[in-house]
Predict the structure of HTH lysR-type domain-containing protein.
Amino acid sequence: MEDLNDLAYFAAVVEHGGFSAAARATGIEKTRLSRRVAALEDRLGVRLLQRNTRHVAATEAGERFFVQAQALVEGARSALDSLADLRREPAGTVRLSCPQVMAQSYLAPILPGYLATYPKVNLELEASDRPVDLLRERIDLALRAGARIEGTAGLVTRKLGQARRVLVASPGYLDAAGRPRAPQDLARMDTFSRPGDVHDGQARWALAGPSGQAAVITHTPRLSTDDLRMQLQAAVNGIGVALLPEPIVSASVRGGVLETVLPHWSAETHMIHLLYPTPRGMLPSVRSLIDYLAVHLPACIQERSVELEDDHETAP
């Protein structure tokens, strides 16, 4: 493939009617232009320009070549200009992935503010519980939550917050099954779990009490799923007791459709991380969303956690 610079030099000479005029227009030395165009002719094996001491004109082959060369050069300039526009200010499309329940609980309250702040950015949000490969699927950012974040090789992992996991159930279920007075009472109740926590049909909850007490509860879950949204809905529907991140259940607790169970006991916190490829060459649009989430997502998590803690403190 020919050097686009040589095509640009040739096109400039034809466009401006000579080497001297092209040199004045481009700022490139006349001798360099002449040498590069001559080298281009040698490689092509065709004379592109007729030269004399007073005039330079394109040959028939040069005229045909000029049309194609000029189109290529303009196309390359347009491509570079489009990148320059993206690098000047946040603009273009940013792709973000996160689990559905996090999209509803954490992102729905704050992303409209981001879009209003950056009107030239388009956001593609993939709210999916499946694991995504950021590099292979060309996803710019991903939110993940868990006691441990895995599968982060080659990615920047930035902690944005943490959330206690609390026990919840519907008031109707607790009225029928009885409200537990101690963690050991949970073993007799209907419960939910994640499939990875179930072994030989049994799951375990490791709970911590208000004064540092520890309790490990073995239970047989009625529902095993990684979909926290499904666990939340099952708890609202009175199926059993769920152990879920505090910000996710706070709205349901405030609305009275869920009730905290053993409110002074909780499990290992969920860490919320933002993952993205190395920032080298990162576009301003992606950087703007990282910075926005770093400010507003922790505040959203904290606000919902404090609301639920306040409910605990005021409970009779």
Observations:
- The longest strand covers residues 156-169.
- The chain has a mean pLDDT of 85.
